[in-house]
Amino acid sequence: MRIGILYDIPRWEERNLIEEAKKLGHEVKLEYTKDSIFLTNERREQEIDVFIQRSVSHNKALLSSLVMESLNFTVINDYNTLIRCENKAITTFLLSKHNIPTPKTGIAFNPEKALELANKIGYPVVIKPIEGSWGRMVAKAQDEDTLRSYVEYQSYSIQKFRDSYYIQEYVNKPNRDIRIFVIGDEVPVGIYRVNDKNWRTNTALGAKAEPLKIDEELRELTLKVREVIGGFFLGVDIFEDKERGYIVDEVNGVPEYKNTVRVTGFNVSQFLIRKIEELIKK
């Protein structure tokens, strides 16, 4: 199999994918999106069976997947999946529409309406960038005065969606959340992300990864998310609520998994490539 890897920053995951693909006897072609030029109806001399999208930049991931699909290549994940999961508003409202439990969430398009929205949800609330990762610029507001400051800050930021205010209820979860991976049609591995010092449970902000035993409820919920969002390789973030149970917070279409491999010993890259082999054979 000839595998193309679309990337912009060579992280551990990309290096590991190359290593595991070669161990399994596959050819690997690297496509560094920062230095690439993409043309409509371009004919590529080297045939590729599948591209794996690994760009950190949401824009580069979205557009390079689109281009490769327009040239009739198979891309994991595809353009439409990335639209549905890299934009938090699209993710949340799609999941809610299909009766998948999510935090109570709203969107407003001017600062005063954002404050009105927060009052309807009830404090404390969380305000997030509609696009973004690693917990950056995610803030909890205990009251209207605090939220007003965050809204003003966003209004003058350089965010793409700075005039769209995405506000959620604050879910009083334990000091952890759950990251579950969907690979193909399976849910093979997951972790807890535990943070005793910060309510945000991103590993980029100091949370520690711990192994997780996936129960049947988690498995079924995660597969329902995949039915709505689409895609082949997803990282699904889930909260535990004392009264409501599991609540889906976000979905990542280019998930990192270094810490998952480290604490579980599960070879994500190898499993992904094996599932891609099954896909291509079909």
Protein model, in words:
The chain is α+β, with helices and mostly antiparallel strands and 282 residues long. Strand 3 (50-53), helix 2 and strand 4 form a beta-alpha-beta unit. 34% of the residues are buried. The chain has helices at residues 12-23, 58-70, 79-86, 88-97, 111-121, 144-155, 216-229, 258-264, 268-281, and strands at 2-7, 27-32, 50-53, 75-76, 105-108, 125-128, 139-141, 165-169, 176-183, 186-194, 208-211, 233-241, 245-252. A five-stranded antiparallel beta sheet has the order 11-10-9-12-13. It has a four-stranded parallel beta sheet with strand order 2-1-3-4, with helices on both faces. A four-stranded antiparallel beta sheet has the order 5-8-6-7, sandwiched between helices. Helix 3 packs across helix 4 and helix 5 (111-121) packs antiparallel against helix 6 (144-155).
Topology:
Layout: E1 2-7, H1 12-23, E2 27-32, E3 50-53, H2 58-70, E4 75-76, H3 79-86, H4 88-97, E5 105-108, H5 111-121, E6 125-128, E7 139-141, H6 144-155, E8 165-169, E9 176-183, E10 186-194, E11 208-211, H7 216-229, E12 233-241, E13 245-252, H8 258-264, H9 268-281
Parallel strand pairs: 1-2, 1-3, 3-4
Antiparallel strand pairs: 5-8, 6-7, 6-8, 9-10, 9-12, 10-11, 12-13
Helix pairs in contact: 2-3, 3-4, 5-6
